[in-house]
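TOKENISE THE FOLD
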Amino acid sequence: MGEFRLLPWAGAEGKRCYLVSDGAGHVSRVADAVERVQLDMAGELLGHAGDMLADQRATSAQLRFLLARMSESLTDVRRIAESRGARLGVPGGDDLGVA
């Protein structure tokens, strides 16, 4: 039997999706690719946030939009950290100890 892997996307109604696999299948490769995209997007968003925060002309609507995207990105990055922590056997890696 394979190991459980928390996938980097949510299922129906925002529920967690898991894969039971040896880590070498098609869905595992797709999940790896999605994680790379999510992490790259988070890095780009951080750069954009720095630029926007330095711009005194940024409007409250622009900053709210940025904050919404950052919240989505942080959710993705947290899910990736949980998944990887669990696969490494880190205590609390499947939950990060956060409610």
